[in-house]
Amino acid sequence: MKSSIKICALQVITNSWQDCLVIKNDFREVEKKEKRTKKKVTIKNILSSLEREDQVLLEKFKSQTKFDNIIITALNDEPYVYNNIFILKENISELLELLDELSFIYKSDKNYLVVKNVDTLIINECLNVIGTYPNINLTLVNDEYLLERKEFIENKLQVNGNTLYLTTVELLNLNNYLQDKDNTTLLLTLTNNIIGESKIIRVKKYTLLSDILDNYFKINTDNYQVIANGLMQGYEITSLTNFIITDDIFAINIINLPSQAEPKCINCGKCIDICPSGVNPLSGKKIAKCLDCGLCSYICPGFVNLKEKLKEYKK
Ligand code: SF4
Ligand code: SF4
Questions:
Q1: Which of 134, 168, 200, 303 could bridge to 263 as Cys pair (CB 3.0-4.6 Å)?
Q2: From ligand 2's centre to the CA of 298, what distance in Å?
Q3: Ligand 2 site: residues with CB under 6 angstroms?
């Protein structure tokens, strides 16, 4: 990180001019790294890289020497979130090569790259290169909710046995760890539903959200909400000033505040009908099966905050 330092005079709280040191962060990475060493793709190297860099991903590989299937998905369940398909588009050759190597070292019988059938541009790009990898099966699926989750995609593809499941974002992270590449940034889908604009940007981890919004979106209303990690399963950010972009943040949505005055249940039963797990979000029946998918809240015509209700039942 490069910082500029200058001496200047500043009027401080005492209301008198004092000499001060101002340290300004230019948010650019100029770290001088030792020469990068690309590691061979072996089980030992994968585990040692993940032990150092990524405990979440490590859980998926830990104590495994064989997978029956490997599923890589370029799907995002959340509306207005495009990170996984974007990563595939940007890194298609590298990702296919790594998937091919994983299939070899983990001796997997079936290897899938899963893309939504509506993503026609990326499908054509995949078809251009996938012939080089005869053991990888390009699989197209309908644009259905929850296919980003392991149990749903396994069910859809009807695979049996021990499955390694990764998103394209996770596969690229693994690639970067193995190649000792910079890992100080992350991808963020930024959507302003008020003006109907979306961007996918790469930001430095631990950047203040307020700095990003100042740079990318002028919000011309006070009547808005900022949602982190998707409209269906995400949550409202209540303090914009202090919110920082950490590893687990992948999307920011800016939306108009709902205009209705008082949320009111009209007993339509839609929230119960739509639940994929058979939970009754109103009574809390079968609450243990709740997937936190957000469908019941999203569909409610009375704008009842069912997410909050579910949280209460889970306590
Ligand atoms: S969907 Fe909303 S309005 Fe309909 S029964 Fe459920 S909570 Fe009530
Ligand atoms: S959030 Fe829970 S209760 Fe609501 S639809 Fe999803 S699984 Fe069912």
A1: 303
A2: 10
A3: 274-275, 277, 279, 281, 290-296, 310
Contact 126, 115 (CB under 8 A): yes
**pLDDT confidence bin for 259, thresholds 50/70/90:** low
Per-residue pLDDT tens digits for 3-34: 444 444 444 445 566 677 766 655 555 555 56
pLDDT for residue 315: 85
Mutation choice for ligand 2 from 270, 310, 314, CB with most ligand atoms inside 8 A: 310
Task: Label each residue of 5-42 as H, E or C.
Answer: EEEEEEECCCCCEEEEEEEEECCCCCCCCCCCCCCCCC
Give the number of other Cβ atoms within 10 Å of residue 120's Cβ. Answer: 11
Average pLDDT over residues 164-179: 96
Whether the CB-CB separation of 293 and 146 falls below 8 Å is answered with: yes
Comparing CA positions, the residue from 63, 131, 60 lying closest to residue 92 is: 131
In the CATH hierarchy, which fold is given to the domain comprising 43-178? Answer: Rossmann fold (3.40.50)
The fourth-level CATH superfamily of domain 185-256 is Listeria-Bacteroides repeat domain (2.60.40.4270)
Domain boundaries, the chain: 43-178, 185-256, 270-314
Q: How far is the CA of 59 from the centre of ligand 2 (A)?
A: 26
Q: Average pLDDT for residues 155-171, to the nearest whole number?
A: 96
Which ligand has the nearest atom to the CA of 278? 2
Q: Is the confidence at residue 172, as pLDDT, over 70? A: yes
Q: CA-CA distance, 192 to 227, in Å (whole number)? A: 10
